Amino acid sequence: MAKVFLKQSTADLCYVCDDNDYEYVELNDISTALTRCFWSQWSPTPLKSMLIKRFGSIRNMYLKLDVTCEKHSAIVKSIALKCALRDGDDRSWIVGCIDEMDWETIQECMEEYFQSIGYDKIECTDDEDIVNFVERLEQDVPLVKEYFKVLYKCNENIARIGYFGDSDKYELFVETDDEETTPHFHIRDAETKGERFETCVCLETNRYCLHGKHKDILTPEQQTMLMEFMESLSMYKPCSTPLIRNYEWAVDMWNLNNEATQVSLRYDSGDDVIIPDYSKMNL
Questions:
Q1: Which of 5, 35, 64, 100 has the fewest beta carbons closer than 10 A?
Q2: Taken in order 92, 97, 103, 105, is the CA torsion positive or negative?
Q3: Are 94 and 37 contacting, i.e. CB atoms less than 8 angstroms apart?
Q4: DSSP symbol at 218
Q5: Of 60, 15, 56, 52, which Cα lies nearest the Cα of 35?
Q6: Model confidence, pTM
Q7: What angle do CA 231, 32, 242 make, to 5 degrees?
Q8: What is d(CA 166, CA 137) in angstroms, rounded to the nearest whole number?
Q9: What is the DSSP string of 162-178?
Q10: Cβ 277 vs Cβ 227: under 8 Å
Q11: 3-state SS, one letter per residue, for 4-58
């Protein structure tokens, strides 16, 4: 069964004032691309014309993707294409206030327009619908491929940590209820899902945890990329406080999904996590 993997957050940044109401939204790159494609600021578009005809003068709107993922995973469980207001000052251009806008009807109008140009749905919760929506949207907005990846072979028994290498060549993940009790993570080529390359690396040391069919060895270049990835901040936990590194996220996923053995993170005097030197692997 195919599923969609979220590579980076689609959330926009909202600036909040004292009364807990946002004043301005800094658009994510994907929101900007969607808006430019379907809601041009300076020229009419079919979607804009349809909404203005039905609702009157609506100014400074933009399009965004609302995405939710499965618990402790970057697998998308719902996605919706929606209209929103860029800032609170737009209230003055609308009859009534923002809370009185008929967002449900606006969404129905949106769905009517997008179905007319070949979209089955713009609010999706079914895996097949999510895959179809993402693949269709990429035809209009190529930037979509920087945010989503369709996984045509999805193992439900893994917790993905992320992808690294050119064009996301390698996938790093933790198996749930792994038969091998030594804390470790898997690295495999993303194209064949491990048929071409897969290896296992310990979480607590810079050693391999080779077992079963997973006995490939990382090249020096792969070791360097692995170390850089583990040191990088996790893009799949963008709202965590404090921000965590991919190594910390991998440990969390092992501890959550493998109860037999647990890993305790260690920190230096500067309160930064201590990561094994994966750039110099040992057998």
A1: 100
A2: negative
A3: no
A4: -
A5: 60
A6: 0.54
A7: 30
A8: 23
A9: EEESGGG-EEEEEETT-
A10: yes
A11: EEECCCCCCEEEECCCCCEEEEECCHHHHHHHHHHCCCCCCCHHHHHHHHHHCCC
Q: Give the position of tokens 């979209």.
A: 119
Tokens 């940590």 belong to 161
What is the DSSP-derived secondary structure letter of residue 75? Answer: B
CA nearest neighbour of 63 among 2, 145, 122, 4: 122
Contact assessment for residue 61 and residue 52, using Cβ atoms and an 8 Å cutoff: no
Which residues partner with 78 through β-bridges? Answer: 68
CB neighbour list of residue 110: distance below 8 Å, 6 or more residues apart: 47, 51, 81, 82, 83, 122
- Give Cα 267 to chain centroid, integer Å: 28
Q: Which helix (H) or strand (E) holds 188?
A: strand 184-189
What is the chain's pLDDT, residue by residue, as a tens digit (283 residues)? 678 888 889 998 876 665 555 566 788 999 999 998 987 655 667 887 887 777 665 667 789 999 998 776 678 999 999 988 776 544 443 444 444 567 788 888 889 999 999 999 999 999 999 999 999 999 999 999 999 988 765 555 888 899 999 989 999 999 988 889 999 999 999 888 888 899 999 999 999 999 888 889 999 999 999 999 999 988 765 454 467 899 999 998 999 889 889 999 999 998 889 999 999 999 8
Checking DSSP bridges between strand 76-85 and strand 123-124, what pairing results, if any?
antiparallel
Which tokens in the block code for residue 60? 């400074």
Q: Of 101, 91, 100, 103, give the one whose Cα is nearest residue 23.
A: 91
Which residue type is seen at 9? S
Sequence letter at residue 100: E
Residue 46, number of CB atoms within 10 A of its CB? 11
